[in-house]
Amino acid sequence: MSFDDAAREPDQMFSLNRDVTGELEYATKIARFSNVYHLSIHFSKNFGAERTKIFYIGLRGEWTEPHRHEVTICNYEAAANPSDHKIDQITPQTHFIS
Known about the structure:
Blueprint: H1 3-6
């Protein structure tokens, strides 16, 4: 995540409250966070202090085993063009039925 990404519209924003006991929970939009593989959190401001200190961020949910998705490059043709697929080894044959 870069500072340019922080200017984009977030999937969800929270208005944070001071939590000295660590008991506050913030509900997320389930539809937006149902299959999360990467999470970036941006804190744009704090409570007026010079530094922002974050001691704990807990995430709740169900863990699922990650699946490796290979990069696939495919070209699809609505109808094959024979001039695109020149093969010298195959002799085309035509059969006529009367």
